[in-house]
Amino acid sequence: MMFWDPRVEEMPKEELQKLQYKLLKTLVYRLYSFSPFYHDRMKQSGVHPDDIQMLGDIRKLPFMYKRDLRDNYPDKIFVAGQDDLVRYHVSSGTTGKPTVVGYTRNDLDHWTASLARGLVSCGLGRGDVLQVSYGYGLFTGGLGLHYGAERVGATVLPTSVGNTERQIELMQDLHTTAIACTPSYLLHMGEVAEKMGVSIRDDTELRMGILGAEPWSDTMKARIEDWLGIKAYDIYGTSELSGPMFCECSEQKGFHVWGDLAYIEILDPETGESLGPGEKGELVVTMLQKEALPMIRYRIGDITSYDDGVCACGRTHPRVMRISGRVDDMLIIRGINVFPSQIEYALMAVPEVGQHFQIVVDRKGALDDMLVRVEVSRESFSDKITDLMAIRKNVEHKLRNTLNVAVNVELVEPGSLPRFEGKAKRVIDRRQL
Amino acid sequence: MTETDRYVIKQISIFSENRPGRLAAIAKALTEENINILAFSIAEADGFGVVRALVDKPKKAYEKLTGIGFNVAFTDVIAVKMRDSPGGLYEIAKMLANVQINIEYSYAYTGKEGGVLILRVDDAEQAVRLITSLGATLLESRVFQ
In chain A, how long is the greatest CA-to-CA distance? Predict the structure, then answer.
Protein backbone atom coordinates (compact mmCIF):
# COMPACT_ATOMS: atom_id res chain seq x y z
CA MET A 1 0.00 0.00 0.00
CA MET A 2 1.47 3.30 -1.14
CA PHE A 3 1.08 6.60 0.68
CA TRP A 4 2.18 10.05 -0.39
CA ASP A 5 2.31 11.49 3.10
CA PRO A 6 1.90 8.51 5.48
CA ARG A 7 2.44 10.55 8.65
CA VAL A 8 -0.64 12.65 7.91
CA GLU A 9 -2.70 10.08 6.07
CA GLU A 10 -2.42 7.48 8.85
CA MET A 11 -2.52 9.97 11.71
CA PRO A 12 -4.56 8.54 14.60
CA LYS A 13 -8.02 10.10 14.70
CA GLU A 14 -7.52 11.71 18.08
CA GLU A 15 -4.34 13.39 16.96
CA LEU A 16 -6.01 14.50 13.72
CA GLN A 17 -8.85 16.10 15.67
CA LYS A 18 -6.39 17.93 17.90
CA LEU A 19 -4.67 19.23 14.79
CA GLN A 20 -8.01 20.32 13.34
CA TYR A 21 -8.91 22.18 16.50
CA LYS A 22 -5.57 23.98 16.50
CA LEU A 23 -5.95 24.93 12.84
CA LEU A 24 -9.55 26.08 13.35
CA LYS A 25 -8.62 28.24 16.30
CA THR A 26 -5.81 29.89 14.35
CA LEU A 27 -8.09 30.39 11.34
CA VAL A 28 -10.84 32.01 13.35
CA TYR A 29 -8.46 34.39 15.10
CA ARG A 30 -6.88 35.27 11.78
CA LEU A 31 -10.22 36.00 10.10
CA TYR A 32 -11.56 37.92 13.08
CA SER A 33 -8.50 40.15 12.88
CA PHE A 34 -7.92 40.44 9.15
CA SER A 35 -11.20 39.74 7.32
CA PRO A 36 -13.68 42.62 7.64
CA PHE A 37 -16.27 40.37 5.95
CA TYR A 38 -15.94 37.50 8.40
CA HIS A 39 -15.38 39.79 11.38
CA ASP A 40 -18.79 41.36 10.69
CA ARG A 41 -20.37 37.96 10.16
CA MET A 42 -19.09 36.75 13.51
CA LYS A 43 -20.26 39.89 15.26
CA GLN A 44 -23.71 39.53 13.74
CA SER A 45 -23.82 35.93 14.97
CA GLY A 46 -22.62 37.00 18.40
CA VAL A 47 -19.59 34.74 18.33
CA HIS A 48 -16.04 35.63 19.33
CA PRO A 49 -12.89 33.61 18.61
CA ASP A 50 -12.65 32.89 22.35
CA ASP A 51 -15.92 30.96 22.09
CA ILE A 52 -14.14 28.27 20.09
CA GLN A 53 -13.03 25.98 22.89
CA MET A 54 -13.26 22.62 21.15
CA LEU A 55 -13.61 21.30 17.63
CA GLY A 56 -17.39 20.92 17.96
CA ASP A 57 -17.67 24.66 18.62
CA ILE A 58 -17.31 25.13 14.87
CA ARG A 59 -21.12 24.89 14.89
CA LYS A 60 -21.24 28.30 16.54
CA LEU A 61 -19.69 29.90 13.45
CA PRO A 62 -21.84 31.48 10.73
CA PHE A 63 -22.19 29.82 7.33
CA MET A 64 -20.83 31.06 4.02
CA TYR A 65 -22.77 30.79 0.77
CA LYS A 66 -21.98 31.15 -2.90
CA ARG A 67 -23.88 34.44 -2.87
CA ASP A 68 -21.27 35.82 -0.46
CA LEU A 69 -18.72 35.47 -3.24
CA ARG A 70 -21.04 37.09 -5.74
CA ASP A 71 -21.89 39.98 -3.41
CA ASN A 72 -18.20 40.60 -2.84
CA TYR A 73 -17.12 40.31 -6.47
CA PRO A 74 -14.41 40.09 -7.51
CA ASP A 75 -12.01 39.97 -4.56
CA LYS A 76 -13.53 41.90 -1.67
CA ILE A 77 -13.41 38.94 0.70
CA PHE A 78 -9.86 37.92 -0.16
CA VAL A 79 -7.68 38.02 2.90
CA ALA A 80 -4.39 38.10 0.98
CA GLY A 81 -3.06 41.21 -0.72
CA GLN A 82 -2.28 41.36 -4.43
CA ASP A 83 1.44 40.77 -3.76
CA ASP A 84 0.70 37.40 -2.22
CA LEU A 85 -1.62 36.16 -4.95
CA VAL A 86 -0.03 33.86 -7.49
CA ARG A 87 -3.11 32.76 -9.45
CA TYR A 88 -6.80 33.35 -10.17
CA HIS A 89 -9.43 30.90 -11.29
CA VAL A 90 -12.93 31.92 -12.32
CA SER A 91 -16.09 29.86 -12.29
CA SER A 92 -19.75 30.50 -12.94
CA GLY A 93 -21.71 32.46 -10.38
CA THR A 94 -25.42 32.21 -9.74
CA THR A 95 -26.18 35.24 -11.91
CA GLY A 96 -24.21 37.30 -14.39
CA LYS A 97 -21.27 37.74 -12.07
CA PRO A 98 -18.76 34.91 -12.00
CA THR A 99 -17.00 33.66 -8.88
CA VAL A 100 -13.33 34.56 -8.60
CA VAL A 101 -10.93 32.50 -6.51
CA GLY A 102 -7.44 33.72 -5.64
CA TYR A 103 -4.52 31.56 -4.53
CA THR A 104 -1.39 32.24 -2.54
CA ARG A 105 1.69 30.08 -3.03
CA ASN A 106 0.66 28.03 0.02
CA ASP A 107 -2.87 27.62 -1.34
CA LEU A 108 -1.48 26.10 -4.53
CA ASP A 109 0.87 23.87 -2.51
CA HIS A 110 -1.99 22.55 -0.39
CA TRP A 111 -4.15 21.96 -3.44
CA THR A 112 -1.41 20.04 -5.18
CA ALA A 113 -0.54 18.09 -2.02
CA SER A 114 -4.18 17.13 -1.52
CA LEU A 115 -4.35 15.74 -5.04
CA ALA A 116 -0.97 14.07 -4.74
CA ARG A 117 -2.24 12.11 -1.73
CA GLY A 118 -5.46 11.25 -3.53
CA LEU A 119 -3.80 10.19 -6.76
CA VAL A 120 -1.32 7.96 -4.97
CA SER A 121 -4.17 6.49 -2.91
CA CYS A 122 -5.81 5.15 -6.06
CA GLY A 123 -2.55 3.90 -7.48
CA LEU A 124 -1.27 6.62 -9.80
CA GLY A 125 2.44 7.31 -9.83
CA ARG A 126 5.72 7.17 -11.71
CA GLY A 127 5.42 5.30 -14.98
CA ASP A 128 1.79 6.31 -15.45
CA VAL A 129 0.67 8.59 -18.25
CA LEU A 130 -2.26 10.71 -17.10
CA GLN A 131 -4.30 12.28 -19.86
CA VAL A 132 -5.93 15.37 -18.40
CA SER A 133 -9.08 15.91 -20.40
CA TYR A 134 -10.55 18.49 -18.07
CA GLY A 135 -10.59 22.03 -19.38
CA TYR A 136 -7.45 24.07 -18.86
CA GLY A 137 -7.74 27.77 -18.19
CA LEU A 138 -10.15 29.56 -15.89
CA PHE A 139 -11.74 26.23 -14.94
CA THR A 140 -9.84 24.56 -12.10
CA GLY A 141 -10.05 20.98 -13.38
CA GLY A 142 -7.22 20.96 -15.92
CA LEU A 143 -4.51 22.82 -14.03
CA GLY A 144 -5.43 21.19 -10.71
CA LEU A 145 -5.00 17.63 -11.94
CA HIS A 146 -2.00 18.69 -14.00
CA TYR A 147 0.10 19.81 -11.05
CA GLY A 148 -1.17 17.05 -8.78
CA ALA A 149 -0.10 14.37 -11.23
CA GLU A 150 3.25 16.00 -11.96
CA ARG A 151 3.92 16.13 -8.23
CA VAL A 152 3.56 12.35 -7.91
CA GLY A 153 5.83 11.75 -10.88
CA ALA A 154 3.25 10.67 -13.46
CA THR A 155 3.66 11.90 -17.03
CA VAL A 156 0.97 14.41 -17.83
CA LEU A 157 -0.65 14.60 -21.25
CA PRO A 158 -2.54 17.90 -21.13
CA THR A 159 -5.11 17.32 -23.86
CA SER A 160 -7.80 19.52 -22.25
CA VAL A 161 -11.33 19.10 -23.60
CA GLY A 162 -12.53 18.49 -27.14
CA ASN A 163 -11.16 17.00 -30.36
CA THR A 164 -12.04 13.53 -29.18
CA GLU A 165 -10.58 11.63 -32.12
CA ARG A 166 -7.19 13.22 -31.57
CA GLN A 167 -7.46 12.41 -27.86
CA ILE A 168 -7.96 8.74 -28.73
CA GLU A 169 -5.02 8.72 -31.15
CA LEU A 170 -2.76 10.27 -28.51
CA MET A 171 -4.09 7.85 -25.91
CA GLN A 172 -2.84 5.00 -28.11
CA ASP A 173 0.41 6.59 -29.32
CA LEU A 174 1.60 7.83 -25.91
CA HIS A 175 0.31 4.82 -23.96
CA THR A 176 -2.05 6.66 -21.65
CA THR A 177 -2.70 4.59 -18.52
CA ALA A 178 -5.02 6.98 -16.67
CA ILE A 179 -7.48 9.65 -17.68
CA ALA A 180 -9.03 12.54 -15.78
CA CYS A 181 -12.32 13.84 -17.18
CA THR A 182 -16.05 13.85 -16.56
CA PRO A 183 -17.62 10.37 -16.53
CA SER A 184 -19.95 11.31 -19.39
CA TYR A 185 -17.03 12.49 -21.51
CA LEU A 186 -15.24 9.19 -20.95
CA LEU A 187 -18.34 7.31 -22.14
CA HIS A 188 -18.47 9.61 -25.16
CA MET A 189 -14.82 8.84 -25.82
CA GLY A 190 -15.59 5.13 -25.71
CA GLU A 191 -18.31 5.61 -28.33
CA VAL A 192 -16.11 7.74 -30.60
CA ALA A 193 -13.29 5.21 -30.24
CA GLU A 194 -15.61 2.39 -31.36
CA LYS A 195 -16.56 4.39 -34.44
CA MET A 196 -12.85 4.72 -35.18
CA GLY A 197 -12.48 0.96 -34.82
CA VAL A 198 -10.61 1.31 -31.52
CA SER A 199 -11.56 -0.63 -28.40
CA ILE A 200 -10.42 1.23 -25.29
CA ARG A 201 -10.44 -2.08 -23.43
CA ASP A 202 -8.31 -4.00 -25.95
CA ASP A 203 -6.42 -1.43 -27.99
CA THR A 204 -5.21 0.99 -25.31
CA GLU A 205 -3.32 0.71 -22.03
CA LEU A 206 -5.90 2.72 -20.11
CA ARG A 207 -6.41 1.18 -16.68
CA MET A 208 -8.03 3.90 -14.59
CA GLY A 209 -10.23 6.96 -14.77
CA ILE A 210 -10.27 9.83 -12.25
CA LEU A 211 -13.75 11.06 -12.85
CA GLY A 212 -15.78 13.92 -11.48
CA ALA A 213 -17.09 17.47 -11.96
CA GLU A 214 -20.61 16.13 -12.49
CA PRO A 215 -23.01 13.79 -10.70
CA TRP A 216 -22.78 10.13 -11.66
CA SER A 217 -24.30 6.94 -10.42
CA ASP A 218 -23.27 3.39 -9.55
CA THR A 219 -24.84 2.35 -12.87
CA MET A 220 -22.56 4.70 -14.79
CA LYS A 221 -19.57 3.54 -12.78
CA ALA A 222 -20.35 -0.09 -13.51
CA ARG A 223 -20.84 0.65 -17.19
CA ILE A 224 -17.50 2.49 -17.43
CA GLU A 225 -15.64 -0.25 -15.58
CA ASP A 226 -17.21 -3.18 -17.44
CA TRP A 227 -17.25 -1.69 -20.91
CA LEU A 228 -13.87 0.05 -20.91
CA GLY A 229 -12.10 -2.45 -18.68
CA ILE A 230 -10.77 0.16 -16.25
CA LYS A 231 -11.19 1.22 -12.62
CA ALA A 232 -13.28 4.36 -12.12
CA TYR A 233 -12.42 6.61 -9.15
CA ASP A 234 -14.54 9.52 -8.00
CA ILE A 235 -12.90 12.91 -7.55
CA TYR A 236 -14.54 15.85 -5.82
CA GLY A 237 -14.04 19.55 -5.51
CA THR A 238 -15.20 22.96 -6.52
CA SER A 239 -13.29 26.13 -7.26
CA GLU A 240 -14.18 27.64 -3.87
CA LEU A 241 -12.32 24.75 -2.18
CA SER A 242 -9.44 25.38 -4.67
CA GLY A 243 -10.60 22.96 -7.38
CA PRO A 244 -10.73 19.17 -7.63
CA MET A 245 -9.40 18.26 -4.18
CA PHE A 246 -10.39 14.84 -2.91
CA CYS A 247 -10.15 11.50 -4.62
CA GLU A 248 -11.26 7.95 -3.91
CA CYS A 249 -8.63 5.49 -2.75
CA SER A 250 -8.16 1.98 -4.10
CA GLU A 251 -11.10 0.84 -1.93
CA GLN A 252 -13.51 2.97 -4.01
CA LYS A 253 -15.74 3.61 -1.01
CA GLY A 254 -15.96 7.41 -1.00
CA PHE A 255 -13.32 10.10 -1.35
CA HIS A 256 -11.03 10.87 1.59
CA VAL A 257 -11.31 14.42 2.83
CA TRP A 258 -7.94 15.28 4.32
CA GLY A 259 -8.67 16.42 7.84
CA ASP A 260 -5.66 18.70 8.07
CA LEU A 261 -7.00 20.66 5.08
CA ALA A 262 -10.74 20.50 5.52
CA TYR A 263 -13.35 19.89 8.19
CA ILE A 264 -16.63 18.45 6.97
CA GLU A 265 -20.11 18.45 8.41
CA ILE A 266 -23.29 16.95 7.02
CA LEU A 267 -26.37 18.97 7.90
CA ASP A 268 -30.06 18.68 7.42
CA PRO A 269 -30.50 21.33 4.69
CA GLU A 270 -33.84 22.46 6.14
CA THR A 271 -33.07 22.69 9.84
CA GLY A 272 -29.29 23.04 9.78
CA GLU A 273 -29.16 20.20 12.31
CA SER A 274 -25.97 18.16 12.33
CA LEU A 275 -26.26 14.63 10.92
CA GLY A 276 -24.14 11.60 11.73
CA PRO A 277 -22.23 9.11 9.59
CA GLY A 278 -24.36 7.38 6.95
CA GLU A 279 -27.10 10.00 7.09
CA LYS A 280 -27.81 11.88 3.90
CA GLY A 281 -27.66 15.66 4.03
CA GLU A 282 -25.95 18.80 2.83
CA LEU A 283 -22.17 18.81 2.77
CA VAL A 284 -20.64 21.79 4.57
CA VAL A 285 -16.91 22.35 4.29
CA THR A 286 -14.48 24.45 6.27
CA MET A 287 -11.08 24.86 4.66
CA LEU A 288 -8.65 24.90 7.54
CA GLN A 289 -5.56 26.23 5.83
CA LYS A 290 -6.72 28.35 2.91
CA GLU A 291 -5.14 31.77 2.89
CA ALA A 292 -6.35 33.98 0.04
CA LEU A 293 -10.01 33.02 0.12
CA PRO A 294 -10.84 31.29 3.39
CA MET A 295 -14.04 29.28 3.37
CA ILE A 296 -15.75 28.65 6.68
CA ARG A 297 -18.75 26.34 6.92
CA TYR A 298 -19.28 26.76 3.22
CA ARG A 299 -22.61 25.44 1.99
CA ILE A 300 -21.69 24.15 -1.44
CA GLY A 301 -25.18 22.73 -1.91
CA ASP A 302 -24.24 19.10 -2.58
CA ILE A 303 -26.17 16.24 -0.98
CA THR A 304 -24.21 13.23 0.28
CA SER A 305 -23.29 11.25 3.39
CA TYR A 306 -20.01 10.39 5.08
CA ASP A 307 -18.21 7.52 6.78
CA ASP A 308 -15.96 8.33 9.72
CA GLY A 309 -14.46 4.87 10.22
CA VAL A 310 -10.85 4.05 9.47
CA CYS A 311 -10.68 2.94 5.83
CA ALA A 312 -9.48 -0.51 4.83
CA CYS A 313 -6.66 1.30 3.01
CA GLY A 314 -5.35 2.43 6.39
CA ARG A 315 -6.19 6.10 6.04
CA THR A 316 -7.88 7.68 9.04
CA HIS A 317 -9.49 10.60 7.24
CA PRO A 318 -13.28 10.58 6.74
CA ARG A 319 -14.74 9.50 3.42
CA VAL A 320 -17.57 11.25 1.61
CA MET A 321 -19.80 9.31 -0.74
CA ARG A 322 -20.46 10.23 -4.36
CA ILE A 323 -22.72 13.30 -4.60
CA SER A 324 -26.33 12.25 -5.02
CA GLY A 325 -28.03 15.57 -5.61
CA ARG A 326 -28.28 19.29 -4.97
CA VAL A 327 -30.18 21.40 -2.47
CA ASP A 328 -30.73 24.10 -5.09
CA ASP A 329 -31.56 24.11 -8.78
CA MET A 330 -27.97 24.13 -10.00
CA LEU A 331 -27.40 21.94 -13.05
CA ILE A 332 -24.13 20.46 -14.17
CA ILE A 333 -23.86 20.43 -17.95
CA ARG A 334 -20.77 18.77 -19.36
CA GLY A 335 -19.00 19.43 -16.09
CA ILE A 336 -19.94 23.12 -16.01
CA ASN A 337 -22.17 24.50 -13.26
CA VAL A 338 -25.27 26.17 -14.63
CA PHE A 339 -27.76 28.10 -12.52
CA PRO A 340 -31.18 28.90 -13.99
CA SER A 341 -30.73 32.38 -12.52
CA GLN A 342 -27.82 32.93 -14.93
CA ILE A 343 -30.18 32.29 -17.82
CA GLU A 344 -32.70 34.70 -16.41
CA TYR A 345 -29.98 37.31 -16.18
CA ALA A 346 -28.74 36.69 -19.73
CA LEU A 347 -32.26 36.90 -21.17
CA MET A 348 -32.73 40.36 -19.67
CA ALA A 349 -30.31 41.60 -22.31
CA VAL A 350 -32.48 40.26 -25.15
CA PRO A 351 -35.71 42.26 -25.34
CA GLU A 352 -36.92 40.21 -28.33
CA VAL A 353 -37.73 37.35 -26.01
CA GLY A 354 -39.65 37.47 -22.75
CA GLN A 355 -38.24 36.68 -19.32
CA HIS A 356 -39.97 33.31 -19.16
CA PHE A 357 -37.93 30.27 -20.07
CA GLN A 358 -37.76 26.54 -19.70
CA ILE A 359 -34.67 24.33 -19.65
CA VAL A 360 -34.74 20.80 -21.01
CA VAL A 361 -31.66 18.70 -20.29
CA ASP A 362 -31.10 15.38 -21.99
CA ARG A 363 -28.29 12.99 -22.82
CA LYS A 364 -27.55 12.76 -26.53
CA GLY A 365 -25.37 9.70 -26.70
CA ALA A 366 -23.15 10.07 -23.65
CA LEU A 367 -23.10 13.86 -23.62
CA ASP A 368 -25.40 16.41 -22.02
CA ASP A 369 -27.61 18.40 -24.30
CA MET A 370 -29.28 21.56 -23.05
CA LEU A 371 -32.24 23.19 -24.72
CA VAL A 372 -33.64 26.52 -23.58
CA ARG A 373 -37.13 27.48 -24.67
CA VAL A 374 -37.93 31.17 -24.86
CA GLU A 375 -41.00 33.09 -25.97
CA VAL A 376 -40.81 35.48 -28.90
CA SER A 377 -42.25 38.79 -27.73
CA ARG A 378 -45.17 40.30 -29.65
CA GLU A 379 -43.29 43.50 -30.37
CA SER A 380 -40.39 41.76 -32.02
CA PHE A 381 -42.31 39.25 -34.11
CA SER A 382 -41.96 39.86 -37.79
CA ASP A 383 -43.07 37.81 -40.71
CA LYS A 384 -39.45 37.28 -41.71
CA ILE A 385 -37.98 33.88 -40.93
CA THR A 386 -34.47 35.35 -41.09
CA ASP A 387 -35.35 37.85 -38.33
CA LEU A 388 -36.60 35.03 -36.13
CA MET A 389 -33.51 32.94 -36.84
CA ALA A 390 -31.37 35.95 -35.93
CA ILE A 391 -33.19 36.32 -32.60
CA ARG A 392 -32.58 32.66 -31.85
CA LYS A 393 -28.93 32.92 -32.76
CA ASN A 394 -28.53 35.98 -30.60
CA VAL A 395 -30.06 34.21 -27.59
CA GLU A 396 -27.83 31.17 -28.18
CA HIS A 397 -24.80 33.42 -28.35
CA LYS A 398 -25.71 35.36 -25.19
CA LEU A 399 -26.38 32.17 -23.24
CA ARG A 400 -23.17 30.59 -24.42
CA ASN A 401 -21.21 33.63 -23.30
CA THR A 402 -22.86 33.69 -19.89
CA LEU A 403 -22.86 29.96 -19.18
CA ASN A 404 -19.67 28.89 -20.99
CA VAL A 405 -21.52 25.93 -22.37
CA ALA A 406 -23.24 25.46 -25.74
CA VAL A 407 -27.02 25.77 -25.64
CA ASN A 408 -29.73 25.14 -28.20
CA VAL A 409 -32.55 27.62 -28.19
CA GLU A 410 -36.12 26.98 -29.26
CA LEU A 411 -38.49 29.84 -29.95
CA VAL A 412 -42.00 29.22 -28.66
CA GLU A 413 -45.28 31.11 -28.76
CA PRO A 414 -45.83 33.87 -26.20
CA GLY A 415 -47.70 32.66 -23.14
CA SER A 416 -47.00 29.02 -23.89
CA LEU A 417 -44.39 28.43 -21.17
CA PRO A 418 -45.60 27.60 -17.67
CA ARG A 419 -45.95 30.54 -15.27
CA PHE A 420 -45.16 30.08 -11.60
CA GLU A 421 -46.35 31.60 -8.42
CA GLY A 422 -43.67 31.08 -5.82
CA LYS A 423 -40.82 28.76 -6.61
CA ALA A 424 -40.39 28.26 -10.33
CA LYS A 425 -39.81 24.79 -11.75
CA ARG A 426 -38.08 25.71 -14.95
CA VAL A 427 -35.94 22.63 -15.43
CA ILE A 428 -36.92 19.37 -17.08
CA ASP A 429 -34.01 16.99 -16.57
CA ARG A 430 -34.42 13.84 -18.61
CA ARG A 431 -30.94 12.48 -18.02
CA GLN A 432 -30.72 8.92 -16.73
CA LEU A 433 -27.45 8.75 -14.85
CA MET B 1 -56.09 56.66 -52.24
CA THR B 2 -52.59 56.19 -53.67
CA GLU B 3 -51.72 53.48 -56.16
CA THR B 4 -49.83 51.64 -53.46
CA ASP B 5 -52.80 51.71 -51.06
CA ARG B 6 -55.07 50.37 -53.73
CA TYR B 7 -52.94 47.30 -54.40
CA VAL B 8 -51.19 46.54 -51.13
CA ILE B 9 -52.91 43.73 -49.29
CA LYS B 10 -52.66 43.14 -45.53
CA GLN B 11 -51.49 39.58 -45.05
CA ILE B 12 -51.57 38.18 -41.53
CA SER B 13 -48.45 36.30 -40.37
CA ILE B 14 -48.75 34.05 -37.36
CA PHE B 15 -45.84 32.65 -35.35
CA SER B 16 -46.39 28.97 -34.68
CA GLU B 17 -44.48 26.27 -32.87
CA ASN B 18 -43.77 23.25 -34.98
CA ARG B 19 -46.06 20.72 -33.31
CA PRO B 20 -49.34 19.00 -34.06
CA GLY B 21 -52.49 21.03 -33.56
CA ARG B 22 -51.21 24.57 -34.09
CA LEU B 23 -52.73 25.01 -37.54
CA ALA B 24 -56.00 23.55 -36.26
CA ALA B 25 -55.99 26.10 -33.42
CA ILE B 26 -55.55 28.96 -35.90
CA ALA B 27 -58.19 27.65 -38.28
CA LYS B 28 -60.66 27.07 -35.45
CA ALA B 29 -60.25 30.65 -34.23
CA LEU B 30 -60.89 32.01 -37.72
CA THR B 31 -63.92 29.75 -38.11
CA GLU B 32 -65.39 31.10 -34.88
CA GLU B 33 -65.19 34.63 -36.25
CA ASN B 34 -66.59 33.57 -39.62
CA ILE B 35 -63.40 34.67 -41.34
CA ASN B 36 -62.71 33.29 -44.79
CA ILE B 37 -59.18 32.27 -45.77
CA LEU B 38 -58.45 33.14 -49.37
CA ALA B 39 -54.90 31.83 -49.58
CA PHE B 40 -52.30 30.67 -47.16
CA SER B 41 -48.89 29.07 -46.80
CA ILE B 42 -46.65 27.77 -44.05
CA ALA B 43 -42.98 28.68 -43.93
CA GLU B 44 -41.00 26.35 -41.74
CA ALA B 45 -37.74 26.86 -39.91
CA ASP B 46 -36.02 24.69 -37.32
CA GLY B 47 -38.57 24.15 -34.56
CA PHE B 48 -41.04 26.86 -35.53
CA GLY B 49 -42.96 28.17 -38.48
CA VAL B 50 -44.80 31.21 -39.77
CA VAL B 51 -48.31 30.74 -41.07
CA ARG B 52 -49.19 33.38 -43.66
CA ALA B 53 -52.74 33.95 -44.77
CA LEU B 54 -54.86 36.28 -46.84
CA VAL B 55 -58.21 36.61 -45.13
CA ASP B 56 -61.32 38.63 -45.81
CA LYS B 57 -61.25 40.35 -42.40
CA PRO B 58 -57.60 40.84 -41.46
CA LYS B 59 -58.22 43.22 -38.55
CA LYS B 60 -60.74 40.90 -36.97
CA ALA B 61 -58.43 37.93 -37.53
CA TYR B 62 -55.57 39.84 -35.87
CA GLU B 63 -57.67 40.69 -32.83
CA LYS B 64 -59.04 37.18 -32.45
CA LEU B 65 -55.68 35.41 -32.80
CA THR B 66 -53.86 37.89 -30.58
CA GLY B 67 -56.65 37.52 -28.04
CA ILE B 68 -56.04 33.81 -27.69
CA GLY B 69 -52.30 34.32 -27.34
CA PHE B 70 -50.87 34.09 -30.82
CA ASN B 71 -48.09 36.30 -32.06
CA VAL B 72 -49.52 37.99 -35.15
CA ALA B 73 -48.13 40.63 -37.50
CA PHE B 74 -49.46 42.35 -40.59
CA THR B 75 -47.32 42.14 -43.68
CA ASP B 76 -47.80 44.01 -46.96
CA VAL B 77 -48.06 41.80 -50.02
CA ILE B 78 -49.27 42.30 -53.57
CA ALA B 79 -51.20 39.93 -55.85
CA VAL B 80 -50.41 39.62 -59.55
CA LYS B 81 -52.88 38.06 -61.94
CA MET B 82 -51.51 35.14 -63.95
CA ARG B 83 -52.79 33.42 -67.06
CA ASP B 84 -54.10 30.01 -65.92
CA SER B 85 -52.38 27.97 -68.64
CA PRO B 86 -48.84 26.68 -69.30
CA GLY B 87 -46.37 29.57 -69.28
CA GLY B 88 -48.49 31.80 -67.05
CA LEU B 89 -46.01 31.85 -64.16
CA TYR B 90 -43.09 32.20 -66.55
CA GLU B 91 -44.54 35.39 -68.04
CA ILE B 92 -44.82 37.04 -64.65
CA ALA B 93 -41.54 35.73 -63.28
CA LYS B 94 -39.66 36.85 -66.40
CA MET B 95 -41.19 40.30 -66.11
CA LEU B 96 -40.15 40.61 -62.47
CA ALA B 97 -36.65 39.46 -63.36
CA ASN B 98 -36.36 42.00 -66.15
CA VAL B 99 -37.14 44.90 -63.85
CA GLN B 100 -34.97 43.44 -61.06
CA ILE B 101 -37.73 42.96 -58.51
CA ASN B 102 -36.53 40.53 -55.89
CA ILE B 103 -39.08 38.18 -54.39
CA GLU B 104 -38.74 37.63 -50.66
CA TYR B 105 -41.33 34.91 -50.72
CA SER B 106 -44.35 33.99 -52.74
CA TYR B 107 -47.28 31.62 -52.95
CA ALA B 108 -50.04 31.14 -55.46
CA TYR B 109 -53.59 29.97 -55.87
CA THR B 110 -56.07 29.49 -58.69
CA GLY B 111 -59.50 30.97 -58.07
CA LYS B 112 -62.36 32.55 -59.92
CA GLU B 113 -60.05 35.40 -60.98
CA GLY B 114 -57.72 32.84 -62.62
CA GLY B 115 -54.21 32.27 -61.37
CA VAL B 116 -52.96 34.63 -58.68
CA LEU B 117 -49.38 35.03 -57.50
CA ILE B 118 -49.01 36.55 -54.03
CA LEU B 119 -45.69 38.36 -53.64
CA ARG B 120 -43.76 39.72 -50.73
CA VAL B 121 -41.17 42.17 -52.06
CA ASP B 122 -38.69 44.56 -50.45
CA ASP B 123 -40.30 47.71 -51.80
CA ALA B 124 -44.03 47.32 -52.43
CA GLU B 125 -44.47 50.89 -53.73
CA GLN B 126 -41.82 50.49 -56.39
CA ALA B 127 -43.10 47.03 -57.34
CA VAL B 128 -46.65 48.35 -57.79
CA ARG B 129 -45.35 51.13 -60.04
CA LEU B 130 -43.18 48.85 -62.17
CA ILE B 131 -45.68 46.00 -62.51
CA THR B 132 -48.58 48.26 -63.49
CA SER B 133 -46.39 50.18 -65.93
CA LEU B 134 -45.50 46.91 -67.66
CA GLY B 135 -49.15 46.17 -68.29
CA ALA B 136 -49.57 43.29 -65.85
CA THR B 137 -52.67 43.22 -63.69
CA LEU B 138 -52.50 43.62 -59.94
CA LEU B 139 -55.54 42.60 -57.94
CA GLU B 140 -56.86 45.43 -55.81
CA SER B 141 -56.88 44.84 -52.08
CA ARG B 142 -60.67 45.33 -51.94
CA VAL B 143 -61.04 42.11 -54.00
CA PHE B 144 -59.87 40.30 -50.87
CA GLN B 145 -60.75 42.56 -48.03
Answer: 74
